[in-house]
Each structure stands twice: as structure tokens, then as C-alpha cells.
Amino acid sequence: MKKQFAALIGLLLALSVPMAGCSSSSVSDSSQEGSSVSSSQAASQSSEEGDDFPSSNATELTVQFGDAGESFVMHLEDNSTAAAIAGYVGATDWRLPVYSYDESDVMEYYDIPSRYEIPDNSETVTEARAGDVFYSDPNRIVLYYHDAEINEEYTLIGRFDATEEFVDAVENNPVLEGWGNQIVVISDGE
Hints:
Keywords: Signal. This is Cyclophilin-like domain-containing protein. The chain has one domain (58-190): Cyclophilin, CATH 2.40.100.20. Strands 1, 2, 3, 4, 5, 6, 7, 8 and 9 form a 9-stranded antiparallel sheet that branches. By secondary structure, the protein is of the alpha+beta class. 26% of the residues lie in helices and 28% in strands.
């Protein structure tokens, strides 16, 4: 009897494991706070569209450095990578943590949750101007707020007017209390 009961429990567990990924609930952590598209929605959207990514005819996005920061306009490039990012941001604002390489004083980057599929059109870039915004595969946005000589594989997705106010906002983005990190909020401006 104990063997039959153990076999039945084992069978139920074996059948429930493949079903665990079928849930439609959204899992959120602090790095994805503010995002309202669940991974199952993004997965079903990309599987229905094949290689078609959400696209937008938007020519600019609005970016804030910190929750209460001043808004700055990012002028988008005309390519499928920028259009896909604008399409996703048009559906839900992105609130992403800010990182930098070795405390860089010329750039910072924002990791996009992996549930978003973004086309990569990268090419070798050897020079970045202050205000240049690139996509780095997989799922990373890189902002240069000072000029830099580089050797990276990037897709240019947009540009900011690198005014003194813009650079100041990037450099003085406050650390989010209780989180220990800075954030950036990207929206379609509506």
C-alpha cells in the first residue's frame, strides 16, 4: 500500500512539473518593478508574431533619471530595434535599475527583462558621443553621457540632446531609498 501511495504521489509530481510554466500570473522583483506585462503575455505575443516584434511609429521616448526627475526626450533612430523598444514601452512604462562598468564616468546601462524579445542589428562602434543611446544584445540599453572612444558591438537606437541639464540629471540621479540603486523611467510620454 505504501509503495502504491508513493508511486501515485510521484506520478502527480511528475505531471505537475511541466504544468508549472503554464501559469498566467506575473512574477515581479525589484528590478522589474513598474512593468505590468507578464512573461506569459510577452511569450504569447512573440510566438503569435514569429519574428515580428511589437513596433511603434514613435520618433521619441521620454526618460526620467529617478522617479521624480526631470523628463528628457530621446530621439529614436529609424530601425527595427528602436521600433521594438518603443512598441514595448508604448504598452507599459519601463522602470529599470541603473548600472555602470567599473564606476564609469562616461556611460551607464539598463538591463531589460529577458521576457522582451528585441531584434539586434549591431555593428562595430568605435566612437560614442554624449547623448548616444545603444542597444547591446542581449537586452541591454547603454547610454553615453560623455564622449568616448570604444570598440563595441551596438545598435544605435536614439540620441539625447546632451545639454548641461541632461548630463547633470544623469550624474546626479538619486539612489532610490531602500533599494540601494538608481533607476531610470522610460515611457512614451503620454
